[in-house]
Amino acid sequence: MSHAFRTLLKKIASGPHTGQHLSRQEAEAAMMMVLQAEATPAQIGGFIVAHRMKRPVPEELAGILDAYDRLSQRIPALNTQPSDHLAAVPIVLGCPYDGRARTAPVTPIVALLLANAGVPVVMHGGDRMPTKYGLPVVEIWQALGIDWTTCDVTRLSETLDRARLACAYTPLIFPETIAVADYRDQIGKRPPLATIELMWSPYEGAVRHACGFVHPPTEGFFQGAFALRGQSDFITVKGLEGSCDLPRSRTAIIGCYQGDQFGRLHLHARDFGLGGSEAVMDSEADYLADLTRLIAGQIETDREHNLLQSAIWSGGFFLWQSGVSENLTSGIRQAEQVIRSGALTQTIATIQAAIQAASPVELTQPDGQT
Q1: How far apart are CA 88 and CA 258, in angstroms?
Q2: Could you write out the DSSP letters of every residue in 246-283?
Q3: Average pLDDT for consecutive 10-residue bins of the chain (370 residues)?
């Protein structure tokens, strides 16, 4: 039993009157012990439940992010010069690790649109995750012909350099998180670590985060934790299922943070001719088939057209925010032109070629052989 961990657990699990928040350093130490299995299963389970019931504070989230940075492998920062085509700070598109189950994700299309325009994009995620067990980003990419599951950080760095897109497969670069997923399944509730997944970056250099949220207090957690860590460049989106995909059926509530500047946006898709119901995902197979046809510029059915509208809406927003387009209207116009032209199929081919050309990763087998 870890006596040091027990002390930290008692601090947050003593109830509403005597319980206390952890300091940033204490939260980092606790998460290090959780991820390295130095605490017992009973202690880890108790910590996750207590932390969820207490609700995290920015200092704790900052400390947990510090632990993530210490233990994970991270993509080396690109060595670019101001004149380089990759001089732009990468955008990290945060996606919930437990995937999507109701609405059709367009985040991969957004990533392809940005990469097509020369903006470096970083994503990350793993396999099916509790509690939702929805469709994860890694499986979407596999359906599009891109397999990130064998890409170590060196290969990811080379692919990001050549093709402007990389998706870190967390079981490979951060295997310590795998065991924690079992606790999420057994407890049956999403822990505060689900918020961390939206805030963490597997990239070592400066980035611009795009973080989705469902509950308004979560945006305040982002603000506080990022401030403590010196991250002043990020976007918050009250998006679909906690993603950064903009909704079309309701107001898109967005926060844009850059340095000391803050802008609150309330965007309405109907004002741009894109209003309507959200693109749903009744069947994963149908969605993946629609997505493949959409990327090829083949839009025939009403369902594919609805997915197109969602992709244009989110894609246009991020083209605008990345500086590729002068305003949202021109971003929407560019997103539609690129998608309808089928140009994203070439972007996928470029990524596939970059992965193939990158340094191969040696996978160690259980017996120690490679």
Answers
A1: 14
A2: PPSSS-EEEEEEETTEEEEEEE-GGGGT--SPPPB-S-
A3: 87 79 97 95 92 92 97 90 58 95 97 97 96 95 98 96 97 93 85 92 96 94 96 97 97 95 96 96 96 96 96 98 96 98 98 89 46
Distance (Å, whole) CA 338 – CA 308: 11
What distance in Å separates the CA atoms of residue 234 and residue 143, rounded to the nearest whole number?
A: 29
Residue 131: cis peptide before it, omega within 30 degrees of 0: yes
Reading the block at residue 328, the tokens are 């949202």
Q: How many helices (H) and strands (E) does the chain have?
A: 16, 7
**297/340 Cα distance (integer angstroms):** 4
Count other Cβ atoms within 10 Å, centred on residue 325: 21
Strands 208-212 and 233-237: parallel
Between CA 53 and CA 64 the distance in angstroms is: 17
- Cα-only R_g, the chain: 20
